[in-house]
Amino acid sequence: MKQIFSRPKSLKEVPFRYCPGCGHSIAHRLIAECIDRLGIREKVVGIAPVGCAVFAYDYFDFDMVEAAHGRPPAVATGLKRVMPDRIIFSYQGDGDLASIGMAEIIHAGARGENITVIFVNNATYGMTGGQMAPTTLIGQKTTTTPLGRDKLRHGYPIRVSEILATLDGVRFVARGVLDSVGNIKKTRNYILRAFQNQIENRGFSFVEILSPCPTDWGMTPSDAKRWVKDVMTGYYKPGILKDDLDK
To answer: Tens digits of per-residue pLDDT, 80-130?
Structure first.
């Protein structure tokens, strides 16, 4: 029988230890598939920060760097400038990128750094116990908002992709969703496009991924997937937000 499905070469032969239903393992596979398809594995350097994203170096079979909390865009900038022939990407969660790392991502985008950023948004601080994140939705219960996020007390969720899309230095912004086979395929295409942009020296590319976190949400994997579809996408609209590659 012909084998038509296998582990990407850019993933190590080790089992994922993410929680059941977590979207990180799917996101890892999508990134690995894109790198294999483009034939760039020997040129790639990935950067992961503190948080669940930090486990990425256990699974990707290429060079990985661990950065301080929120600082992957700065590290990516340095690496790309001294090694312009390498393909540099950061892999960050919402607690990392949209909170302590907000200044880093904004200024990397404003400078138009020729890097690729993968942003996993699960609307919570996943590793540290499920506290409210900058992306936590109004009414969403977390360990620090047990009654639900209140817009008067806690402010509004931050739409990072929409903010970055306003910057002149940013060339490509897309938001994918890990809730169905069709949307997972679309997300893979966004990631592929983001890497292709860097290969062609087109500038800063950003892909946000709406991902379930069943453990911290207190849901089953199936319910978490439905929550992504029914609730998260209502506030964080999927699709291509900016495709400005002619400049």
So the answer is: 999 999 999 999 999 899 999 999 999 999 999 999 999 999 999 988 888
| pTM, two decimal places | 0.95
**In angstroms, rounded to a whole number, what is the distance separating the alpha carbons of residues 90 and 67?**
10
C-alpha distance from residue 210 to each of 10, 18, 56, 66, 138 (Å): 23, 16, 17, 23, 16
Strand-pair category, 204-210 with 116-121: parallel
Write down the residue that tokens 């590290």 correspond to. 75
Q: Could you give the C-alpha distances from 106 to 65, 77, 156, 196, 210, in angstroms and in order?
A: 21, 12, 18, 22, 20
Q: What are phi and psi of 9, to 5 degrees?
A: -65, -25
Say whether 217 sits in a helix, a strand or coil. helix
The SS3 call for residue 190 is: helix
Could you state, in order of their start, the residue ranges of all structural domains in the chain? 24-243
Give how far Cα 61 sits from Cα of 8, 36, 57, 58, Å.
10, 11, 8, 8
- Domain 24-243: CATH class, spelled out: alpha beta
- Asked if 136 and 126 touch (Cβ cutoff 8 Å), the reply is no
